[in-house]
Amino acid sequence: MVEKKGFAQKTWKFEEVNHGPEPFIKLSYVSQHLEEGYPGNLKVTVTYKIQDNALVIEHKAETDRKTVLNLTNHTYFKLDYGDGITDYLLQMNCTHFTESDKDQLPTGNFVSVKGTPYNFLEERPIGNTPLDVPFAIHPKTNLAARVKSKESGITMTVQTNQSALVVYTPPEFPGICFETQNFPDAPNQPNFPSSVLKPGEEYSNISKYHFSVT
Known about the structure:
By secondary structure, this protein is mainly beta. It has one domain: Beta-galactosidase, Chain A, domain 5, CATH 2.70.98.10. Helix content is 0%, strand content 47%. It is built from no helices and 17 strands. The protein has strands at residues 13-18, 24-31, 42-50, 54-63, 67-68, 76-77, 89-92, 94-100, 106-112, 124-125, 132-137, 143-148, 154-160, 164-168, 176-181, 196-197, 203-213. The chain has a nine-stranded antiparallel beta sheet with strand order 1-2-3-4-17-13-12-7-10, with no helix packed on it. A hairpin with a 5-residue loop joins strand 8 (94-100) and strand 9 (106-112).
């Protein structure tokens, strides 16, 4: 049986470290042809950069064979020292989310957020609704979401060049995760954007988490 280990469990190589006014670190990993069954020798880099009060995360990749790829960042954010995040104000430029089956796999259908607990088109408290949902970012904006703690006054905005935003609030601890990516299970859903990467193309996922205080 093929051992399944995500890239988060691999050993990455330090490519570059910059201590300048916009410091960054660049890491790389090479996934060999047929690692975990995926075709192609895939070279991936991820750069973490501090720029204008923002954390910028850039995933890039190239392959020598046609393959599928969908990278993301799975960081939990907590904007204050409070016990929970139910009072956080959340607004998302996401008019639809993906319908999921009993195994949390997308069916391929998009559902309007209106009339559902997932309607954050207007800013409102997160409340007690558990979130583990892939949202469709409105195509005319790269500002996917904005979240604010009234206790600390800290606001974080999420900008990305990706089509989907998976929002997750874990039951074990207070925090919120904004995964900027393509839609899950895209290879099996013809109406989702393609996740195919071909030789000569460059995969690019650029996401920006900007912080301000009011």
